[in-house]
Structures are given as structure tokens and as C-alpha cells.
Specification:
The complex is a heterodimer of chains A (277) and B (239).
Chain A: E1 3-9, E2 15-21, E3 29-33, H1 47-57, E4 62-66, H2 82-101, E5 105-111, H3 113-121, E6 127-133, H4 141-152, H5 155-170, H6 185-197, E7 201-207, H7 218-224, H8 226-229, E8 234-239, H9 249-266
Parallel strand pairs in A: 3-4, 3-5, 5-6, 6-7, 7-8
Antiparallel strand pairs in A: 1-2, 2-4
Chain B: E1 2-3, E2 11-16, H1 21-25, H2 27-39, E3 43-46, H3 64-82, E4 86-92, H4 94-106, E5 110-114, H5 120-135, H6 147-150, E6 153-154, E7 157-158, H7 161-168, E8 179-183, E9 202-205, H8 227-238
Parallel strand pairs in B: 2-3, 2-4, 4-5, 5-8, 8-9
Antiparallel strand pairs in B: 1-3, 6-7
The chains are: A alpha/beta (277), B alpha/beta (239).
Amino acid sequence: MMAERAFRFGRARHLVGMVGLPPAAPGAVGVIVLNTGLMHRVGPFRLHVDLTRRLNALGYPTLRFDLSTMGDSGASAEAGSREEQIRADVHDAAALLAGQAGCTRFVLVGLCRGAQSAHVACSEAGVAGAIFLDGYIYRTFGFKLRHYLPRLLSPARWRGFLARKLRAALAPEEEVSFGSVYPPRAQVRGELAGMLARGLRLYFVYSGGIGEQLNHPRQFRECYGRGVADHPALRMDLLDGTDHTYTLLCDRERLFGHIESWLQEQFPAAPKTAPAG
Amino acid sequence: MYHGTAGHAPVGVLLCPPLGQALLRTHRVYRQLAHGLATRGIGALRFDYRGTGDSAGDSLALDWQHCLADIRSAAAELRVRSGCATVVGFGAQLGGSLALAAASAAGFARLILWDPVLDGARHVAELDAWQEALRTDPLHYAKPRTVEEAAGQWLGFPVGAQWRAQLAGWRAEPARVPTLILDSRPEPAAGGWSPLVEAGAQVCAMSTSTHWGDLHRLEHAILAPDLLRVVGEALERAA
């Protein structure tokens, strides 16, 4: 039987998370799931709960937790940038999972803003891989051709475009936008190249829900170049037809299948072996 | 998760969460409410029913009777942790319905219900309609999804036949304790707050509307800037 346990942990005991352990001897690779947007560690539609429990059943120890000031976690009272906080939080999370399950290497998982957090935290020692769900992707010339050319020739698209503009003019959006600002593409490309050079294995999964940002698998290569996109330690899949948070059960099943396959291929959940000698 | 006070708390509030995505959307406002109550000397306990949130169990195993049993257990835990003699039941949407249904067994001295669901059959019809709208919503899916792909779910969560029948059979009956309804619905629902109002329940209109079933806000946190003030004042009046 799998075991889950809630922890308050971290350098200021300000972080809250759930450690899940496999029913048998845990493997050496732990999976750490980061907050999706501003949502707490349970994830949209309980996605993080279902994912971590499935990974536990496959032999992976897991931790889903709330970063500083999110969900049930408090602030650490440290000065520093958000990026520094995220790295320190992931450092604390890795230490907790190492203590509870003996993991020595970690794979980070994040959706949307969580993917951006994972990108930041990939520099932490012990991080051996990351699964970016709707992670960074930039519009390319190819994207614009594929996106705009068909629209130029469609009267229905023009009607929709004008209706949206009119609606926006008549009833401006009242809600505050919490959208994040992407760093420059060259910076992200360089950071990804650096991760691959350090031996990290990276998996990008894009949903069909970001069609305004990505509209063809080829775009990944257009965006980051062959050096990154064709690197043997990197894989990219586009789960066309799904929405951004995998609302339908069949879409979540499809996502989980992809994640499990990649993890088992790249980080088989073999039990830890005793050091030689 | 218990939000304690410095010493003995004469009153405790059990925060019964709603279900489905509303549980996730209200997490922050529940936390803020619990923290705010604790600073006023009121102990507050948050929890997840089995099969929801962080609690054990599969989402598909959600069961009305189990939820009521979990409320009773949580109320007992709150009494032990806070030492309080008086426990107030608070719940939003279906959390309000469950708090109402469990009021007697959990020993609630008072109820504060935020947009509670009072007519289960009508709510089931709403959920079915929202799910159908989701399936064909162009902002979610470039092409409409099939009926089969969307079947057996309500807005991201699996729905078992038993849960569906239990919810459809829910008809609110007034509790025998003072009840305050916090109304934040954007539009008055058919039936109003009957039969609770006829039995003496008070209604307080909230300053901001809550869009519980809006497909385009499924991932948006629900905000209620005056919730702590309204709940705090209600508890002070009752004290």
C-alpha cells in the first residue's frame, strides 16, 4: 500500500507538502511536482494528486508541495528574488524527499507557471530531469504563417476577430491579469542548452490549449534550434486536442501515459543499490 | 489543518470545503478566513473529505454519507484541538449543503452558509449543462469533444452513479440552529433560499459576485474580500 504523509518543512519551516512513497522499496529518483499557476499543490482537477499516486505505484517517491507564499506555505522572511526563493524551496523539497525516501536524484514536474518554476530550479544540485507541461515556447515566423494565412482568407474568422474587438471595447476586462512575462527567447534557449550540457533530461509536453502560442510540433525546433530540439536527451510531444489543464479524464489519462513512459525510459524506478565496497 | 489561537478558544469554526473545482478555487479564501478567525481568537479547522483534495481516496469514490461522517470527525477534532465548547459550521456551495446536512450530528451551534446548494436535482441539471457547454466550448477545444469523451464527469472530476444519485436526491431542510446565508450569486436562483429563509435563516448579500460554474474561470481563485469581515461580525453578534 502506498503511503502519503503531510509535512511542514523548509529552512523556515514555512513550506507544506505531501510526500508519497511507493508500496515497495522506493527508487533513487524522486519526483517533485510544483504549483500550477496560483493553485495549491493538489493541482487543477486534482491532477497532481492523481499523478503522484500513479507514480508512487510505479515505484517513484514523490513530493507535491506549495512554493513560498502559495497554497498553504508561508513566506520565508528572506530577502531575495522570486527565482532565488524558488531555487531555495526546491532545494528544501529535495532535502525532504531525500530524507524520507533516500532519493539522490530528482525530476521536476510543472504545468504552465509550474513549468517556469521548474525551469528556474533546474540549476539546483540533484535535479536530473524536468517535465515541462506547457513550458516556454515562443511564436516563430512559421507559427505566424500557419496562424494568420488561413485567417486572412476566411470571412468567418474576420467576423469573429471584429466581434472580439468590439466586445473588448464595449466591456473591458475587469479582472486583474496574473499572466507572466516570458524572458527573452535567446536566454531560455541558452539555459536549455546549459541544462542539456550538464546532463539533464528534459521532456516538453504541450497541450492543444496553447494554440495561440504553438501550432505545430515543428515550432519547437524553429524556436530553439537543432542544437536543443534535436538533442538526444530532450523530447517534445504535442497532445493536440487537449485543453491547457487537461480537464477531460481521457486527456489526463493520455498525459499520464506520456509522463509515465518517459520517466520509465529515462529514469527507471529501480530500487537503490548499496554503494560498492 | 488547524489554525489555532494563543490560548483556549471558546468558539471554533469548522470550514467545510465545497467539492469539485470549487474546492480548489476557494482554497486561498478558506485559508485567509481561517487565519483571520484565528487572529480574532476563534479556532478554525480546514480539511478535505475523503476522495477530495489531499485526502486519501479516488475522486470517483466520492460519497455523500462519507462526507457527512468526515464532517463529524473533523468537528470532533476541532473540539479536541481548540478546547471550544461551541462549534460553528461554515461551508461554501456544496460545502454549505454538507454542513447543513451534518449540522445536528456534528453538533453545530450555528451555521454560516455561503451560496449553499439547496436543491440537488437542480444542481445536477446545472452541472450536466456546464459539462455539455465545456465539451463544445471553443476556448477549451478547437474542435468539440465527443459525448463519450465528456461522459461521466462534471467540470474535470469523475462522477460515479452513486454520487450523482445522492446529489440529485439532496433537498435542504432547515437546521434547528441559527443560520446565516451569505449570498454572492450573480443572479437570484429560482426558489431563492427556500426553505431556509421561511424557517428564519438570515441572508446577507456579499459585495462581490461569485461565478461558481463559469467555464472560463475554472482555474481562477474565488475571491471574497468581505468574507472575513462578514463572518467575524456574525460570530461577534452571536457571542
